[in-house]
Design brief:
With 597 residues, the chain is an alpha/beta fold. The protein contains 24 helices and 20 strands.
């Protein structure tokens, strides 16, 4: 079961303070005691000289698994994947200089997705600061400042005795309010120094947020009950707060159609009678026609900042005629892109529970009847609109394999409880639009505020470590696989059975089609020689299979999952099929014209 954002009672399911620890520990050992108390079971790393004191402490710590990546970006993305699936802290530790700069992308991706990740970077010894030590990242290359703009907190440990306070400060920042990434830079000469045992449990130093605004809940309830044609746009905050159940309850109680943003795919079951599927980049016709029809009088936005990819480039028609209700744990997200009528600040799960309680209380008191008949009217409307853009291509037997058909075959073959990681690019568009979110599977991708390519290659390893009993499948493009495909070796080395499905078309295809649509068919820099991803996988010790026909997809995926090994399905697809990218093209054209909406 997805645990992202779950509320843990003080002390429950967390490590206890050891009864017989020595009165002093090394800095490295004390860090590990805090990580254990936070429920951290794995650390993702790539070794380097200045980092060795911390790695040696990990060697002697059986409670924390050490996963050595092939690149520091991979290590950081694995920590992100672990945090997203587990709902707890993800941790990566890398060495100084290029080790730290390589990790920047993964840490920035975690911050963009509001995921609690602690990045520990080594630093050269303090006595060598400014003297030209190898990989010095203190003086001319100030790594703390580099991380500051992409984290909630970035500091260098100033003195060994300050570790406990500094680490608690970082963990509090990462795991409180709108969660995010934090960075702690550790001079190597500090790591082995002894410090007093100053260990506190999480409930002693960071709050558990269950906040909600009662008056805002009352106002939102009134607006929703008065609405004639309301709709919900659910963002990824619903997933992060583990509020899927509450969202379904709200939709059914008020008979409100629900769309999700691309990043929130799966927050509401697309098989549900009230589902509009995805709105934004790669919109479903259901969502696009309903939300942009001009009929929506009240729009309830939950856990979305309404950025470009979730609004079709800030489409003006998304604004409802009567009221925009917006709920987020971060007050700075409210009214950022659309004027808000009822701002609601608070924990999404708690606030939705309070809203449901208040709505039911009003109904029980006879103060306002619950709506009736709206669901039947919506079902009739939905019959006249296709949920996807090209249903014919989904059953096409043509070669090369149509991406639409691939997504249909995957929907049929994927286990119901699969965790599906999606990389950034062409594959995001196909998967977001055509794959089915059942309500039991989990979708994870980084397209949105950041959109890091390679995310879907490395992050699933952390996701699988965090959820060993669930199948983890990644859908990636060959361009992203070229960036971080060596992390398949990490999965092989550590026995982490992820299945990667590589859409092989020998192109950076989202950019390729974007350029063609924008520049009268001209493209540049998008093509490369076709790689044999299956052979690469075999060379790295994984299972590799090439897939070129629709009927091969299901059996190949079933075989890969049953093997219990890391596996790569090298799926050759039709490169000339245009993905559902047109709303993104319209956004870019607006940007070129200097327009924001």
């Amino acid at each position: 079961m997805e645990a992202q954002g779950q509320i843990i009672a003080p002390g429950k399911a967390l490590a206890r303070v050891p009864e017989r620890l020595a009165e002093t520990l090394t800095v490295s050992e004390l860090i590990l005691e805090y990580l254990k108390a936070e429920g951290v079971g794995a650390v993702y790393t790539l070794p380097g000289g200045p980092l060795t004191p911390l790695l040696d402490a990990l060697y002697h710590e059986p409670a924390i698994r050490t996963i050595a990546a092939r690149h520091e970006a991979g290590a950081a993305l694995m920590a992100l994947g672990h945090a997203r699936v587990s709902g707890r802290l993800g941790v990566c530790c890398v060495t100084t200089g290029p080790g730290a700069t390589n990790a920047l992308t993964g840490v920035a991706a975690a911050q963009a997705d509001s995921l609690p990740v602690l990045a520990l970077t080594a630093q050269v010894a303090t006595v060598t600061f400014g003297r030209g030590s190898i990989q010095d990242s203190y003086d001319s290359l100030n790594i703390v400042e580099m991380f500051r703009s992409i984290t909630k907190m970035s500091v260098m440990l100033a003195h060994p005795r300050g570790l406990a306070h500094t680490l608690r400060q970082a963990l509090r920042a990462a795991l409180s309010g709108r969660r995010g990434a934090v960075h702690l830079n550790l001079p190597t000469d500090f790591m082995k120094q002894k410090v007093p045992l100053e260990l506190q449990l999480p409930h002693d130093y960071r709050p558990i947020s269950r906040t909600f605004d009662r008056e805002a809940v009352k106002l939102a309830a009134e607006r929703l009950l008065q609405a004639r044609h309301p709709a919900v746009l659910a963002g990824n905050g619903v997933n992060l707060a583990s509020a899927r159940k509450e969202l379904v309850e709200l939709a059914e109680l008020l008979e409100i159609p629900v769309a999700t943003t691309p990043k929130a795919k799966g927050a509401f079951p697309e098989s549900h009678a009230l589902a509009l599927r995805v709105f934004g980049t790669a919109s479903s016709p259901w969502a696009e026609e309903y939300l942009l029809s001009g009929k929506v009088d009240v729009l309830f936005v939950i856990g979305s900042s309404l950025h470009e990819s979730s609004t079709q480039g800030w489409e003006a028609r998304l604004m409802p005629s009567q009221a925009l209700i917006q709920l987020d744990i971060d007050p700075t997200m409210l009214g950022r892109n659309y004027p808000v009528t009822v701002p609601m600040v608070g924990d999404i799960k708690t606030t939705l529970r309070e809203l449901l309680f208040h709505l039911r209380r009003l109904a029980a008191a006879g103060e306002h009847p619950m709506p009736a008949g709206r669901a039947a009217e919506f079902a009739l409307w939905r019959k006249g609109v296709s949920p996807v853009l090209d249903e014919k291509a989904m059953i096409s037997d043509e070669a090369p394999l149509k991406p639409q058909r691939l997504m249909r075959e995957l929907s049929l073959a994927l286990p119901e409880n699969a965790i599906i990681f999606i990389d950034s690019g062409n594959n995001t568009l196909w998967a977001t639009h055509y794959l089915n979110a059942t309500g039991k599977n989990t979708f994870v991708h980084n397209w949105g505020d950041f959109g890091a390519m390679g995310f879907g290659v490395a992050a699933p390893i952390g996701g699988k470590v965090a959820a060993p009993d669930r199948p983890v499948v990644a859908i990636v493009g060959d361009g992203a696989f070229a960036m971080l495909g060596m992390e398949v070796s990490t999965a092989v080395t550590h026995g982490v059975p992820v299945v990667w499905i590589v859409l092989n078309d020998s192109k950076l295809n989202a950019v390729y089609h974007g350029q063609k649509l924008l520049y009268e068919g001209r493209t540049i820099g998008c093509d490369f020689a076709r790689m044999d991803a299956a052979m690469i996988a075999e060379g790295l010790g994984a299972l590799g299979r090439r897939v070129t026909k629709p009927e091969e997809v299901g059996p190949a995926l079933t075989e890969a999952l049953a093997s219990g090994r890391p596996a790569v399905l090298d799926v050759w697809i039709d490169a000339e099929e245009v993905p559902p990218i047109h709303s993104r093209i319209r956004s870019i054209q607006k940007f070129f014209a200097g327009m924001a909406s």
